[in-house]
Amino acid sequence: MPNQNSTARYSALAKLFHWVIAGLIVTQFVLARMAENLPLGAHKLALLARHKSFGMTVLMLAILRLLWRLKNPPPELPAGMTPLERRLARGTHIVFYVLLFAMPLTGWTMSSAKNYSVSWFGLFTWPNLIGKNEAAFDFLRSTHDTLSNVLFAVAVLHILAALKHHYWNRDNVLLRMLPFTKSERRS
Predict the structure, then answer these.
(1) What letter does residue 130 receive in the DSSP assignment?
(2) What is the pLDDT of residues 140-160, one digit of tens each?
(3) Is 120:140 a contact under the CB 8 Å cutoff?
(4) Rounded to 5°, angle at Cα 65 from 126 and 49
(5) Are 23 and 61 in contact (CB under 8 A)?
(6) Cβ neighbours for 81, distance < 8 A, ≥ 6 positions apart
(7) Cα 105 versus chain centre, distance
(8) pTM
(9) Which residue stretches of the chain are H helix?
(10) CA distance 171 to 174
C-alpha cells in the first residue's frame, strides 16, 4: 500500500498522467481557438483533425488515469486543511474527471452527428456514435463549448489553489505533484 502521509509524493506515473493531460488540454484550447475564426478550408480542417486526435488521446489517457487512480490512491490532503477545503479539493478532482470524459465524448458525438469522421492521427478512424442529426449537432456543440468554459474555469481555480498552498499555506501540495522536486514541508 502506498505511503499516505502528507509528505508523500505522487508516483511518477500519476505525475506523468497529470502533466501530459494538462499539456494536451492546453493544446486543445489553442487548436480550438485557432480554428474558431478560420473560414472553412484545408487549414481549418487540419486544425480540427488534430484537435479531434488530441481529444481522443485525452479520453484514452483519462481511462488509464482513472484505472491507475482506483488502484493507487493519492497522498492524503494536509492535516491543516479545513473541512470545506477538503470538500472543494475532492469536488474539483471529481469535476476534472467528469470533464476529461465529457469533453472528448461530446466532441466525438458532435462530429458523429455531422457525419464527420474522427481519425486518430490518420492511423485509424473511430466509429460514429450516432447518425447524422443537425439538432443533436447543435446541442452537442453548445454543450461542448460550455464544458470547455467550465474546464477552463476549474483549471484556473486548480492552479490558484496550488499556488495558495505553495505561497500562503507553505505546504507541500504543489511540490508533491511537480516533477524533479523534493516535497519536504516548507517552513
Answers:
(1) S
(2) 999 999 999 999 999 999 999
(3) no
(4) 30
(5) no
(6) 89
(7) 13
(8) 0.88
(9) 12-36, 42-71, 83-113, 134-163
(10) 8
